[in-house]
Amino acid sequence: MRKRFFGKKLATSALALLLATSVALSGCGKSNKSDNTKKKPANDKTTEKIKIDGEEVPAQLQSTLNVIDDKNRNFYEIFVGSFCDSDGDGMGDIQGIISKLDYLNDGDDSTDTDLGINGIWLMPISPSPSYHKYDITDYCDIDKAYGSLDDFKQLIEECNKRGIKVIIDLVMNHSSIGHPWFKEAREYLQNLPDDKEPDASECKYVNYYTFKKGEQTGNYYQAGTSAYYYEGVFSQQMPDLNLGNPDVRKEFEDIAKFWLDLGAAGFRLDGAKEYYSGETDKNIEVLRWFNGYVKSVKPDAYIVAETWCADYARYVESGIDSAFDFSYSSFDGNISLVTQGVDPAYNGKYFATALKNTQDTLAGYSKDAISATFVGNHDLNRAAHYLAFDENKIKFVHGLLGIMNGCTYIYYGDEIGIGGTGADENKRSPMIWSSTDKTGECKGPINMDKNYVINKFASVEEQEKDETSILSYVKQSVKLRNIFPEIARGTIEILSDVEDGDIFAVSKTYNDSKIIILANTDKEETKAVTLPREKNNYTCIQGMLTVGEDKPYQVEDTIVLPPYSIVILK
Length: 570
Ligand SMILES: [Ca+2]
Ligand SMILES: [Ca+2]
Ligand SMILES: [Ca+2]
Fold this sequence. Notes:
Shape: globular
Strand content: 15-25%
Distance between the termini: 35 Å
CATH architecture of the largest domain: Alpha-Beta Barrel
Largest sheet: 8 strands, parallel
Bound molecules: calcium ion
Number of strands: 21
Low-confidence stretches: 1-46
CATH topology of the largest domain: TIM Barrel
Mean pLDDT: 92
């Protein structure tokens, strides 16, 4: 049994009341409204009807994809070790990803069995002693646990066939203490006589990091048995690199070129606000250098920086395409707050204003900036978990993500409602492909605590067969983005004539094509919204997303929106 927000009686009476209201508002006289109020089976297409000019006609729902091959992409973030294991050792790997590409996008626009994503962000894949691999020992190779460079090349080839671009995580703030650069520097410092200053002409690597003589306050650790301490903002295992050193920059230019030459479409830059902790201007300068170099090699490369800070938007001043906007993610982010509806201030109108402000703010820093939003990622508690496994809420957060501009990022497993909270390992638990067939299943991080990885929803295999599953909903949400390019690329205008604060109402205009997006953010009440067609320049509902069995419909100028439903008008 699937959870419902309200019993049938309440829904029916609410609909009857609202339909009566909608008819009164639209002034369309007689209609078969009493029929509409009867509960219909989930797949009864007659609920998708509209009445225009007194005639009842089928809703003109669009299904033809119109995917534009630009930088506004539907990304999917993969923690490789937990996604799919190809060789039965329990460790996810690149061949495993290749085997699941048809799940992500089969490359055939006439099918809608896939998720419809067209961008992959791979978390770090280079050799590293840790399970998470954010401490790298060789930037130009693949960790053996994940495969080989040949596997990576094959992945790119297969992705190219499907219109998927792959960006890789690039960790420039720090290396591993096991990186040869650091090991050589440490060795040199250990052997340095007490009365001698470090000399970069003897060991250039002493200037690759920030070494200071004697004990330091803050995030500093002793370099072996030497008298020197190194900065390690994230941990002792991760010595911070000196990005002011031209030699270090040259290393990363070579590293970037290495991956671009192999077919990477760009980079996700880890920890960009810690390049120079607390110094945004200097961080932006680093990004300006890196962006300039990357685009001199590959002009259409895409760069998104991890900027987990209030002034994230400023980072696009550097010329990078995107800076992750954390304000929409997590339990206390905009998407969750609007969905939870606990504080009425976070309603549909608020969400519309937030989107418009985000667009304007980014444009103020760079006319080419692309917003980059997500519900969750590898550092955040899983959405399903913080939404208390409420299926409708889990769907709706993906609905709200789906109507956002720019690039959206889905964290692997969120599309089937995987749980996980607390320690990072718990947020990186294995993808659940099937409940019966263990092929491809990963063991997950060794220190993962299963008590904090609660999975209440079915596997991919089962959810694929269920039209009402979270997975089916997320597919529909991504599909809308692939049908209507205006969603990701349009200039937002708030439809302020819509008075009900629970209703999200905006238009988005892209290349002279305008759509209107309405969303009912109320979790219980069906709403009727009157929006004159002529004034607002649309004909009818052309796309919809619903969490339950009640579907939106249109009677003349009135759109009836069940709880948590979204429509596209055009
Ligand atoms: Ca494996
Ligand atoms: Ca397809
Ligand atoms: Ca740093």
